[in-house]
Design brief:
By secondary structure, this protein is an alpha/beta fold. It has two domains: about 110 residues, Urease, subunit C, domain 1; about 290 residues, Alpha-Beta Barrel (TIM Barrel). It has 15 helices and 16 strands. The strands form two sheets. Strands 1, 2, 3, 4, 5, 14, 15 and 16 form an eight-stranded mixed sheet that branches. The chain has an eight-stranded parallel sheet with strand order 6-7-8-9-10-11-12-13. Helix 4 crosses helix 5 and helix 6 packs parallel to helix 7. It is globular, with a radius of gyration of 21 Å. About 50% of the residues are buried. The protein binds N-(iminomethyl)-L-glutamic acid and fe (iii) ion. The site of N-(iminomethyl)-L-glutamic acid has 12 residues, from helix 3.
Length: about 425
C-alpha cells in the first residue's frame, strides 16, 4: 500500500463534501465533478484531490506511486445495497419456463422460486457456499462494486439461515470489503409450515433472532412483504421483533402489489424500502418526511418482465432513490451495476447523472455507509475505479453491455 497519486484525470466524478448523506429530488440532477484533476490516496483513504493547475506536488512524499490517467475518468466504486449473492445453485430452468409463458408467481406456486433455492441450499456446506459466493464477490468487484449488502433467506430453517449468515460473516472477515448482512428469514413460508405459518414466524422470532444476536450475524432485517408471501401484519410483527435485537429494517415491498408494506417499513424506521415496481399514490406520500431510502432494482424488472419502478415520479415528489442489483438466482442473476445504471437510464428515463447519484451516495446511504463510501471525499475509503479512455460520463451507460472500467481499487488496493 502506501501512497498513490492519480494525475491528469480527465474528470473526477462524484466529488462531495463529507456532510452530504444523500441526494433527493432535484439535487439528484447534477453530479459534482472536477475536470483535469488529481487524486491522492494514503493507505486505504482518500487524502486529497484538486485541479491539475493547482497542483503543487507532494515533494515530501517518499515511495509515491504515480498513475497517469490521461483521457480516463475516476469514479467512486458502486455500492450495491441489495443482493442475495449467497446461494446454492442457478435456476435457469425457471428462466426457460418464463420464456415459455409461466410467470414468477406460477413458478413459485409449483414449488420453484425461493423454495427451490432453499431446497438446494440445505444440501450445501458452509464452505461450498462461501467459495461460490467469494467468486461472485470477485466478479462484482471487477465490475466496479466496492461495497455490497447480502441477505440470507434461502435457508428458511434455523440451521440453514444461520449457515447463510455465517457465510456472509466470513466473507466480511476475509475480503476486507465493506459487506452488510441482512437477515431475511421471512423470505417465503417453508413447505412444512404451509398450514401453520405462525409457527414459522415464531421460529424466526424465538429461535433465529436470539442466535443471530449472540453471534453478531446481521446488521439489518428484511421481510418479503407481498401477496402469497408475508402479510402486512406478519411483517409488522417480525420487524418489531428484529428491532428489539438491534436490527434496522430494509424490506422487500411493492414488487407485485401494493398492500401497505411501505407504511409498515416507515412505522419501524426502515433504512430502505426496496423494489417499488407497483406504487399507489399513498405510498409516495408516506415516504415524504421520512429518512428512508427508496431502492429500485431495474434489472429485476428486466429479467422478470415486470413493470419498471416509477423512478421519475419518486424523484418528482422530492424523494431520493438508490439503485441496486438484487443479484440472486431467481429474479436477477447479475450483479453488474454498470448494466443496472444503463438500464435505469433507458427504462426509467433518468439522466446518467441521476443514475450515478443513485448508485453511489444514495446506495451508500441505503446500506448505512455514507460516511465512508459513495463519493470522492477526503477521509472516505479509497474505493474508486479508473475508466478506459471515454469521451464523456454519459458514455458509460450509453455503451451498454461493456463495462468501460480499466482498474478497480478497494481500500486503496488494486483488484487483480
Ligand atoms: O428480490 N422478491 C423476493 N426476493 C428476490 C427473489 C428471490 C428469488 O426468486 O430467489 C427478489 O427479487
Ligand atoms: Fe431482493
Amino acid at each position: 500500500m502506501g501512497r498513490l497519486l492519480i494525475k491528469n484525470i480527465k474528470e473526477l466524478v462524484q466529488v462531495l463534501e463529507p456532510q452530504v448523506k444523500k441526494l433527493s429530488g432535484k439535487e439528484m440532477d447534477s453530479l459534482s465533478t472536477i475536470k483535469d484533476a488529481w487524486l491522492a490516496i494514503e493507505d486505504d483513504l482518500i487524502v486529497g484531490f484538486g485541479k491539475m493547475e493547482n497542483w503543487e506536488g507532494i515533494s515530501d512524499w517518499t515511495n509515491l506511486k504515480v498513475i497517469d490517467a490521461t483521457g480516463k475518468m475516476v469514479f467512486p466504486t458502486w455500492c450495491d445495497s441489495h443482493t442475495h449473492l449467497v446461494f446454492a445453485a442457478s435456476r435457469e430452468e425457471e428462466f426457460v419456463d418464463r420464456i415459455k409463458g409461466l410467470t414468477y408467481q406460477d413458478i413459485a406456486a409449483k414449488g420453484g422460486g425461493i423454495l427451490n433455492s432453499a431446497k438446494k441450499l440445505q444440501t450445501k456446506t458452509e464452505e461450498e457456499l462461501y467459495n461460490d459466493a467469494l467468486k461472485r464477490i470477485q466478479e462484482i468487484q471487477q465490475m466496479g462494486t466496492g461495497a455490497v449488502e447480502i441477505k440470507s433467506g434461502y435457508g428458511l430453517s434455523v440451521d440453514a439461515e444461520l449457515k447463510m449468515l455465517r457465510v456472509i460473516k466470513k466473507l466480511k472477515q476475509t475480503t476486507g470489503m465493506e459487506i452488510k448482512a441482512t437477515f431475511l428469514g421471512a423470505h417465503a413460508i417453508p413447505v412444512e409450515f404451509k398450514e401453520n405459518r405462525t409457527a414459522y414466524i415464531d421460529l424466526i422470532i424465538n429461535e433465529m433472532l436470539p442466535k443471530i444476536k449472540e453471534e453478531k450475524l446481521a446488521d439489518y432485517i428484511d421481510v418479503f412483504c407481498e401477496t402469497n408471501y408475508y402479510t402486512v401484519e406478519e411483517t409488522d410483527r417480525i420487524l418489531a421483533a428484529g428491532l428489539k435485537y438491534g436490527l434496522t429494517p430494509k424490506i422487500h415491498v411493492n414488487q407485485f402489489s401494493s398492500i401497505g408494506g411501505i407504511h409498515i417499513g416507515i412505522k419501524h424506521n426502515a433504512l430502505s424500502v426496496d423494489h417499488l415496481e407497483v406504487m399507489k399514490e399513498d405510498d409516495y406520500k408516506i415516504l415524504i418526511n421520512s429518512e428512508c431510502m427508496p431502492t429500485l432494482l431495474p434489472t429485476c424488472s428486466y429479467f422478470l418482465g415486470i413493470p419498471y419502478s416509477p423512478a421519475k415520479k419518486i424523484k418528482d415528489y422530492g424523494l431520493p432513490f438508490a439503485l441496486a442489483s438484487d443479484f440472486n438466482p431467481g429474479s436477477t442473476p447479475s450483479g453488474n451495476m454498470n448494466f443496472v445504471i444503463s438500464l435505469a437510464c433507458i427504462k426509467y428515463k433518468i439522466t446518467p447523472e441521476v443514475a450515478i447519484n443513485a448508485a453511489t451516495i444514495n446506495a451508500a446511504y441505503a446500506m448505512g455507509i455514507e460516511h465512508t463510501q459513495g463519493s470522492i471525499t477526503v477521509g472516505k475509503k479509497a474505493n474508486f475505479f479508473i475508466t478506459e479512455e471515454i469521451p464523456s460520463i454519459a458514455f458509460l451507460p450509453y455503451y451498454f453491455g461493456k463495462n468501460c472500467i480499466e482498474s478497480v481499487y478497494i481500500n486503496g488496493k488494486k483488484i487483480d
